């Protein structure tokens, strides 16, 4: 993610803004050019072309635009929705708004990585619990289900504590679940299964049995060093999805750091310093450059959080094995031919 500037007054803008706080210009995101644009007389100041609002803008859940000649009602992000919350139920709208913020950030990153996301293949269902059924967040054949309850901050924190997780966010959920979809796209369809197994293991092992064994096992630290998280150790598919989500965390955060012009030089000892100047595009950089910048940046982020008395923003450790898995994901994404 990066910062934007209002084309009318040069005021700083953020991805979710719909009105410029300085000049009151209406704002909308143009997914093709990848620009948050001010509008004047129905035309985007970014390209002086006419655009129209996504149909979901009336609910205050989307600020993406479509070309006026586009026959679709919904933008390229909202077309992925198959089921949205029942807005006649009190309290559902603000929860849906949070889900859409996370989903649009996800789609932004997929676009920056030039990854295909056909809405006929990759679909989202945002489902509320019922007295008879508790919705489980998950993925099946390109269908991503997100429990609406996860958008409630208190409920999500409760679940995080119950599962002994150091990190649990809506954006993290979405990045993880689409990671399962991209295993099909990037590994299976591209004939990279043997390469995958060399790093992540045999994905043909019984998934249900592996997850049961994972949850039945007493908490331990025996996963550290081999996996990015405890859950990643449950099954090769989960290892891939956790690693894929982590890769998206990294490139998105580094793009924002570069947008702010961040330079990090924490002192270590008399012999040297850990340093990083984030002045590159992580979507085009080498994995080596990404990793060299990432460690000092996360050290700084955690230190700032501790100053405010909040938990570490980045509660992870990148081992050599995890870095190798991330490097594999980076390589197969970078080697993909440009989208037509």
UniProtKB/TrEMBL annotation:
What domain of life does the UniProt record list for this protein's source? Answer: Bacteria
Ranges for the Zinc-ribbon domain? 3-88
Annotated Gene3D superfamilies:
3.40.390.70
Q: What is this protein called?
A: Zinc-binding peptidase
| Organism from which the protein derives | Sabulicella glaciei
Show the taxonomic lineage.
Answer: Bacteria, Pseudomonadati, Pseudomonadota, Alphaproteobacteria, Acetobacterales
